[in-house]
Specification:
about 325 residues; Rossmann fold; two-stranded antiparallel sheet; 13 helices; globular
Length: about 325
């Protein structure tokens, strides 16, 4: 074990991120100026050495009060820790805007109602008026409590009442494992899960499993062609919460099923279409990426994904969405 630990310490294994509520009671971030390493999979692909800024975000600049700045809000799609710094969305959007400051506030494992808290924070602390929200397709559904993608506010999946679901602090064992490269490799790179192993060895009763699955997903299966009932409530809650803070231009870029588009097999998504309809009615400029990506695949076979093992945007995908966002922000 000691020899394995020494061996993995020599490799670019992902190191501890030590996330916590450092800047706001409802906003998870890294410690300011924290250094760590990221890599992907057993063979340690896409190695990056990262440093958080003064607010604990992976960004190309520190944040300071500036009403001319644009806040770029999202999850791991904004952080893009697997890409080189110049290829990440914050840096690319700043170049597309001709150098206008962009505050990239991406936090992995978060959802739409978490984004509202960052919009509040950026306006209150830095005077930001203009926002770009980069949404993955699951951000609305993941705003339901129990989704595993929440740092603070969420809606109860049954009653749709608002709740707070914060990440618990790390226990003693987890804090110890954070300093072990071997543990980071086994649990982070290989994604080994003792809980999943136990579930496979001792499967729960059918009824309890079904109940917990329904709670996590927010509802029973939605019939084809129907809109999920939570879409309206989550969307309305989001816009009500950001109303005092998004006082300038609000641009929402929403991802689409890129792999289906590349194969020409895209299926309708009524819940996604409903969100776009509601967001536009609320005054947001919504960039639907479906036609953008369709046009790309009509002229090129180049993928927009990091790889078949990672559906995040690669540098080319980031370029397409940031150019569209910059064009929208430039409109009168």
């Amino acid at each position: 074990m000691l020899l394995l630990e020494i061996f993995f310490q020599l490799l670019p294994v992902s190191t501890s991120t030590e996330t916590g509520y450092y800047i706001d009671p409802l906003i998870l971030s890294y410690p300011p100026y924290h250094h760590w390493t990221t890599s992907t999979g057993w063979d340690l692909r896409n190695v990056q050495r990262l440093e958080s800024n003064n607010l604990g975000y992976v960004a190309n600049r520190d944040f300071e009060r500036n009403a001319n700045a644009v806040a770029l809000i999202g999850d791991s799609f904004v952080e893009a820790s697997m890409l080189a710094a110049p290829d990440r969305p914050g840096a690319q959007l700043e170049r597309a805007l001709g150098g206008r400051p962009v505050f990239a506030m991406g936090n992995p494992g978060t959802a739409l109602l978490d984004y509202a808290e960052r919009i509040r924070f950026a306006h209150t602390h830095f005077g930001v008026r203009d926002f770009v929200v980069l949404m993955e397709r699951g951000d609305v559904k993941q705003s339901l409590c129990g989704s595993g993608n929440i740092n603070g506010p969420c809606l109860d999946p049954k009653t749709l009442e608002p709740h707070i679901e914060k990440q618990p602090p790390a226990g003693t064992l987890k804090r110890i494992f954070r300093h072990s490269a071997l543990a980071q490799y086994v649990f982070g790179q290989l994604k080994f899960s003792p809980q999943q192993l136990l579930r496979q060895a001792f499967p729960p009763a059918h009824g309890s499993h079904a109940a917990s699955s329904q709670l996590a997903s927010g509802a029973a299966q939605i019939p084809p062609g129907r809109t999920a009932p939570y879409v309206d409530v989550v969307t309305h809650t989001f816009f009500e919460r950001i109303k005092p803070y998004a006082t300038g231009r609000l641009v929402i870029v929403i991802d689409s099923d890129r792999r289906a588009l590349a194969k020409g097999r895209l299926k309708p998504d009524p819940s996604r279409a409903r969100f776009i309809q509601l967001a536009r009615a609320a005054g947001a400029t919504v960039i639907d990426t479906e036609p953008i990506f369709q046009a790309h695949f009509a002229r090129s076979h180049l993928s927009l994904d990091v790889g078949p093992y990672d559906g995040h945007f690669n540098a080319l995908g980031v370029s397409l969405v940031t150019q569209a966002a910059a064009t929208a922000l430039a409109q009168p």
